[in-house]
Write a structure and sequence with these properties.
Elements (H helix, E strand, L loop, with lengths): L1 E6 L11 H6 L1 H14 L3 H7 L2 H5 L1 H19 L7 E4 L3 H8 L5 H21 L2 E7 L3 H10 L4 E8 L2 E7 H13 L4 E4 L12 H13 L9 E2 L6 E2 L2 H10 L7 H10 L2 E6 L5 H9 L4 E4 L6
Parallel strand pairs: 1-2, 1-9, 2-7, 9-10
Antiparallel strand pairs: 3-5, 3-6, 4-5, 7-8
Helix pairs in contact: 2-5, 2-7, 5-6, 5-7, 6-7, 7-10, 8-9, 10-11
């Protein structure tokens, strides 16, 4: 049975995340202490004892989720046998490290730089995101294209759930129009800016240099990347897709469907929470979906 290991992005964090792994596994302790040194602050203290608000700080959220995901993949040991991997937005960095395309230290530094660059881009202009429930992809994309403001479809999470991203005015206009067209819900998200949109161009430019300077290797299995939903093993292609990721939509529905078409029968969410499991079930209920923590038992 072909297995796809998938890695979550922002929104999967929770207070106390990773403490059970730290307490039980020496490999987890070593990696987490190494992360504290690399980052220059004790991220583990915030993960284990911080509040929800503490964990929502961008400079904390992204490295924390990355760290939890990579640690979980490492302690699986021989049970981490992916035929393919993918990650949702930030999760793509976790997937690349777990699959051997990047060193742990390099991946953590890139994620930290990504978080800081994204926050700086958010501070340049007021922008936001919203989840649209109950409309098909084509309708949402068309409405965004017709609005005379910067607003785009940013995350294709599963059929009937798309996140839009753009200027506050553009998102508000899109919400109004999409509700008129029958959206069941349109929910403004508690985010600091418009991720996966043109508003992230300054962050993309800042991160591009760091990605170019990072050494990438061929992964142990294909990595289905967000920007085109296709499998990649060539290090240079992976780099270029990773650079474009910040301003491109996350093609998650398409990625999952392509992995299923390529033989994936079991999807294993590797990281905190169960957000991806819910999304995958809505994409195709015929596949098996589980948390990587179940493989530890």
């Amino acid at each position: 049975m072909k297995q796809a290991f998938v890695f979550p992005g922002q929104g999967s964090q929770y207070p106390g995340m990773g403490k059970d792994l730290y307490d039980k596994y020496e490999t987890a302790r070593q990696l987490m202490e190494q992360a504290n040194e690399i980052l220059g602050f004790r991220i583990t203290d915030i993960m284990f004892a911080g509040t929800e608000e503490d964990l929502k700080q961008t400079k904390v959220t992204q490295p924390a989720i990355f760290l939890h995901s990579v640690v979980l993949a490492r302690i699986l040991g021989d049970k981490f046998k992916p035929d393919m991997v993918a990650g949702h937005s930030l999760g793509e960095f976790s997937a690349l490290v777990a699959a051997g395309a990047m060193k742990f230290e390099d991946g953590l530094l890139l994620v930290s730089k990504r978080a800081i660059a994204m926050q700086k881009a958010c501070d340049l202009a007021e922008s936001t995101m919203a989840a649209i429930i109950g409309l098909d992809d084509e309708t949402v994309v068309k409405v965004c294209e017709e609005i005379d403001e910067t607003v785009v479809a940013a995350n294709f999470n599963n059929p009937g759930q798309i996140v839009i991203s753009g200027s506050v005015k553009g998102v508000d206009m899109a919400i109004e129009r999409l509700k008129e067209l029958g959206a069941r819900r349109a929910i403004k998200l508690q985010v600091s800016g418009a991720f996966h949109s043109p508003f992230m161009k300054p962050a993309e430019e800042e991160l591009a240099k760091a990605i170019e300077e990072t050494q990438f290797a061929e992964p142990v299995c294909p990595v289905y990347q967000n920007v085109d939903a296709l499998p990649h093993t060539d290090p240079q292609e992976i780099k270029q897709n990773l650079i474009k990721q910040l301003t491109s939509p996350v093609l998650w529905t398409q990625s999952v469907r392509n992995m299923i078409a390529d033989g994936a029968k079991r999807f294993i969410e590797t990281g905190p929470g169960n957000v991806l499991q819910g999304m995958i079930r809505k994409i195709d209920r015929s596949v098996e979906v589980m948390s990587a923590t179940k493989l530890l038992n």
